[in-house]
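Q&A log
Question type: sequence-to-structure
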Amino acid sequence: MCARLLIHVGDYKTGSTSIQTCLSEGLWRCETHSLAYPCANPHHMVLAKAMRLRKPDPARDDLFRQTAQAVRNADADTVVLSAEHFQGVRPARLLKWVETYLPEMADDMCVLAYVRPHAEFTLSLYAERVKLGATTDPIDTYLPRFLENDRIRFAPRFMRWRRVFGDRFILRPVVAPLLAGGDALNDFLNIALEGHAFELNQGHLRSNPSLSAEDLWFMRHVHARISELRPDLDKADRRRFGNALYSVLSDKGPSGTPLGLTSDQIALVQDSCNEDARAMDRAFFPEGALAPALAEADKLSCPDLGAPTDHVSARQRLALLRSWPKFMRSASEADGLLAGLVFGS
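Response status: OK
Response body:
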């Protein structure tokens, strides 16, 4: 049986993809401490979503038992479960799952989360929502609404985790000088391996590269056209298309102007998030992390580009064509929509 259970719960936009790629593909090497990641997929999203179900469900209960048995069977010093979607689970429900299915590990466990500074988180989440077709609004329209959302209020959310797990909850700020190794992945492995020395195979890691302002504008433009041409297209298909187009656009890294915020937008984020940043530092980072990062948000400043281009580039049209086979299941269904996008862009 493993000595310790570590549950990595995100947060969103904090490097979880790199962590999960490293874990699922075994891209680290440590001679003095063993680590197991019992998961057929890169993450435990299905487990996290199952924990949100309230009604009895035999399939869910089977999943719970199978996961617990896989944790028990792991021959390792530490066993890791990881999914950003644990953020959608009530902390008390996660604790109850451990106490019910892995009671022998409840006292010697750790819940680990990372939190990104407010301005960086806001910008990164906006780009993600554009990519997936969740919004086609320009950021100056999106931003005031988002800043009223509880999702950007970190202190109440992470205090709930602390109230339930106490000292078993660890929160780390995604601020390079404050992380072991300067990034979330190295910091995560340092915690998971309890400080033992390790080697990391960086060459095979996958991450989510940022799109340029021009490519993000293009994705907004294409998603808006899809809404006009196919208003019946469901969210799952929008997400699938967005991921397909993103993978082609980002294949060789950003091409164009880095995404940023105008000085007025930065001031709006600072005014809206200053109290929460200070509350987070008082509760979790007494030496200062999120409040100083918010005060230095001017580093994200960029001019107001509006629509970065007045036409769609040949490269972007080609990316649309290359991404299409990854998206449409039916060739007959695809023809009309693709023609409307390419020639109507």
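Response note: DSSP finds 14 helices and seven strands in the chain.
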